[in-house]
Write a structure and sequence with these properties.
The protein is built from 14 helices and 23 strands. The protein has 527 residues and is of the alpha+beta class.
């Protein structure tokens, strides 16, 4: 027992190690499996993500194809306490109680099951999620990389946990769950708002590239009695400039490449465009297309702080680049990767994972480096860069890219797909008006989304504040009639029951007040 800490606990509480509360820790095995999600009736094996997010997610599993590997002894049962022994520094030690089980899912070597000798399952669950519990897990976890930490069974048993009397535990757990129910309702409402904002953003982009967001240039020109440059004429200008740039690049070259006139798109099956618009292809509009360096050319070990930033898809946010100072390279590596340097006016597009994720390169990012998971697009002629970026992010484009991209576990976008992509091209003046209106509407959506995110973060802080007070004994009143936890643990260690029948002659005493008024619980303070 940690004597130096006992004085900091409420009356009747004690410190113990998690191992004293457990009969056993069970684990599955590691073997080759089918990565696909199990179909109905199939046996699955849990991924760590099944226990990572607060609730048991039985669909987060892989398929066991080999019947000889099926072991019913490690099937997850309703009420099981599950624990992740390996994950990132933030998620190692994540735990859940399997409240609902409908599939035959086996434990993996990374997903453990605790068997309790003391009826403290819920208390331990919240204890391991509390600030103290997370600190204990991170203290005992091993591994040099934050991206993968491990905590073995011996160290799991060493996790220190405060133990109150059993009746007080039940009162605290009930109070935690009462507050969490309210928080869950608030979070669910905020998530619904966030989902509506995602749909609103998509709707703005959809109407923008369909010519329904602002009056068309044809309509304005007719009303004002003037001529205008159509999308078709604009495309002709772009093609002239495209050829001129090619010929300029060939001057002085020892081996000249013949200019190939880009083909017009096949319009059969494409929707009808507004008056003054025309269909173009990626080949017609692009003057350059660069894939990021292969993994063998750039390693995580090359990264330093305060070097030349490397831009990957995770740095794209709402069409802008948000760099990470830790993802940069020293001058020697930057020189080796000079051909991947970015230039102001480039459009960056993710070529893996989430299709349509893009960002514009501004003057600040000029000279930065293209990352492995990105494509750099350089337009051939006069075209509003932001309009092209909004087009790439529009729902119809994302669906097309997803449908044509390749990859079984992660979609991959190649140059051929992008060059053949049909692009609705409005008059240049109309592009500018579309971009201004999209920016105006998305700025409102961005502000609302920021408010939602702020409140979601506040809910997360309140959740941790509740757990902190709970495990300091400041959430519910104490009852001096409760048997001290140390006596209960000593009896269990000697082979006795965790609970003794309440004596009919027990002295009746009013419960003492908690040390902090409960109205202070929801005072939001910065962590």
């Amino acid at each position: 027992m940690m004597k130096e800490e006992v004085s900091g606990l409420p009356t009747g509480w004690t410190w113990t190690q998690l191992g004293t509360l457990l009969d056993d820790i069970e684990a599955g095995k590691s073997f080759q499996v089918n990565p696909a999600r199990p179909a109905s009736g199939d046996v699955g094996i849990l991924k760590v993500s099944a226990v990572s997010w607060g609730e048991y997610q039985e669909d987060e599993s892989k398929t066991v194809d080999d019947p000889s590997r099926v072991n019913p002894d490690v099937f997850v049962q309703q009420g099981d306490f599950l624990f992740s022994r390996a994950n990132t520094i933030e998620l190692v030690g994540a735990c859940v109680i399997a409240r609902r089980v409908t599939r035959r899912s086996m434990l993996s070597d990374k997903t453990l099951r605790f068997r309790f000798r003391v009826p403290m399952k819920e208390w331990v669950l919240y204890g391991l999620r509390s600030p103290h519990g997370r600190a204990e897990i991170q203290r005992l976890a091993t591994g040099n990389q934050d991206s993968m930490r491990n905590i073995g069974q011996r160290r799991i048993r060493q996790i220190r946990i405060p133990v109150p009397p059993l009746p007080e535990q039940r009162r605290i757990v009930a109070e935690i769950e009462k507050h969490f129910t309210r928080l869950d309702a608030a979070v669910a409402a905020l998530e619904r708002v966030k989902a509506r904002l995602v749909r609103a953003r998509a709707s703005v982009l959809k109407t923008a590239v369909e010519g329904r967001l602002v009056p068309t240039e044809a309509e304005l020109a007719r009303a004002e009695g003037r001529d205008y440059e159509t999308g078709e004429v604009l495309l002709e200008r772009i093609l002239v400039e495209r050829r001129a740039r090619h010929e300029e690049a060939q001057q002085g070259a020892k081996r000249k490449n013949r200019y190939v006139e880009p083909k017009a798109p096949e319009t059969e099956g494409l929707p009808e465009l507004p008056e003054g618009w025309v269909w173009a292809t990626g080949t017609q509009l692009l003057g350059g297309l660069q894939t990021g360096p292969f993994g063998s050319m750039l390693h995580k070990s090359d990264y330093v702080s305060d070097g030349t930033p490397v831009v990957n898809p995770q740095h794209f946010r709402h069409g802008r680049i948000t760099p990470d100072e830790a993802v940069s390279v020293p001058p020697s590596i930057a020189k080796k990767l000079k051909r991947y340097s970015l230039r102001a006016g480039d459009v960056l597009l993710a070529r893996r994972g989430e299709m349509g994720r893009c960002a514009l390169v501004g003057h600040r990012e000029d000279g930065w480096l293209l990352g492995t998971g990105s494509l750099s697009l350089r337009l051939a002629g006069p075209l509003n860069l932001q309009y092209f970026c909004w087009f790439l992010r529009s729902p119809s484009t994302v669906r097309r890219l997803e449908g044509e991209s390749v990859g079984s576990t992660m979609t991959n976008l190649n140059q051929k797909i992008l060059l053949a992509l049909p692009v609705p091209l409005p008059p240049l003046a109309e592009q500018h008006r579309i971009v201004a209106e999209v920016d105006r509407r998305l700025s409102v959506i961005d502000a609302l989304e920021s408010t939602v995110d702020t409140n979601l973060a506040r809910c997360a802080r309140l959740r941790q504040a509740i757990l902190k007070r709970a495990f300091e004994g400041r959430l519910v009143p104490q009852d001096p009639r409760d048997e001290p936890a140390a006596e209960m643990l000593a009896r269990v260690k000697a082979g006795g029951p965790a609970e003794m029948p309440m004596s009919s002659t027990s002295r009746k005493t009013e419960p003492s007040s908690p040390r902090v008024a409960q109205r202070d619980l929801f005072e939001d303070r910065a962590p």
